[in-house]
Amino acid sequence: MHRYIKVDAEMEQALTEVTNAFPFPDYFYPWLCGHITIAQTVQRFLRPGARILDFGAGPADKTAVLAALGYKCTAADDLQDDWHKRGDTRRRILDFSEKMGIEYIQLDGGALPDTGDFDMVMLHDVLEHLHDSPRDLLIGLLERVRDDGYLFVTVPNHVNLRKRLDVLRGRTSHPPYELYYWYPGAWRGHVREYTEGDCLALAKALGLQVRELGGTHHILSKVPPRLLRAYLAVSRFIPSTRDTWSMVAQKPPGWVAKPELDGQELRELTGLKSWGELAH
């Protein structure tokens, strides 16, 4: 397996621990799917022992790496993806989380802790699935983060190298239409992917200070092996062509949530007098 990033002994040990405990072996590819870069990003901002809320954690694979590194982790997810509901998958996720020392909250029946002392809230590959604005969700999560704490999000890059080439060839940059058409029930795939400018606009709207923003690799497993080295070489010189955006933004002291625009702000930003004008 191609290792495009170096890790120290502590990280190697954490990855080994999670790999040995994780109950879904065909799901966990830490060298190709962002587990390492996410953990290293957290290490740049927080010391072990810090409290982290991982929202939309799925099987808690990324959460578990951080737990193995000594962070106090809470994971939250509705576990409503189709594969989550097959057989005893949910139980295996919860058993794994307990084994790794992770508090797991099922959002279809449980509530997030009513606390404001998390050091960081993370959302990895979550925002692109939302059908509505992330405003209310993120405000609610940030209210659970201490002053000077962090929001850490990773989102698919809507203009990564593969999608740019697809569009140039007249192909769609969205998932295959057949996948969307035949999907059972409510669509759980990507609704809106992000660009660098979108990430900056998100942080500004939330009143946060961007501390780190850049392109990274989270889905190298989808790159054909024969093209992997060439892709890594190109993306090394043009980071904006990588598959994922990674942003860490800080909550300033005295932060106050902004739930809506006033009339003047709406006109200045959109040219509209009211949101109702969009219907005409």
Can you give a write-up of this model?
The chain has 280 residues and is α/β, with parallel strands linked by helices. The chain has one domain (9-279): Rossmann fold (3-Layer(aba) Sandwich), CATH 3.40.50.150. 34% of the residues lie in helices and 18% in strands. The chain contains 10 helices and 7 strands. A 7-stranded mixed sheet has the order 3-2-1-4-5-7-6, sandwiched between helices. Helix 1 (9-21) packs across helix 3 (61-68) and helix 2 (35-45) crosses helix 3 (61-68). The longest helix is centred in the N-terminal third of the chain and has 13 residues, at 9-21. It starts with 8 loop residues before the first helix and ends in a 10-residue tail after the last helix. The mean pLDDT is 91.
Fold topology:
Elements lengths: L8 H13 L13 H11 L5 E5 L5 H8 L3 E6 L11 H11 L3 E4 L11 E7 L10 H8 L2 E12 L4 H8 L8 H5 L14 H11 L2 E8 L8 H13 L6 E7 L12 H8 L10
Key traits:
280 residues; 10 helices; alpha/beta; 7 strands; Rossmann fold; seven-stranded mixed β-sheet
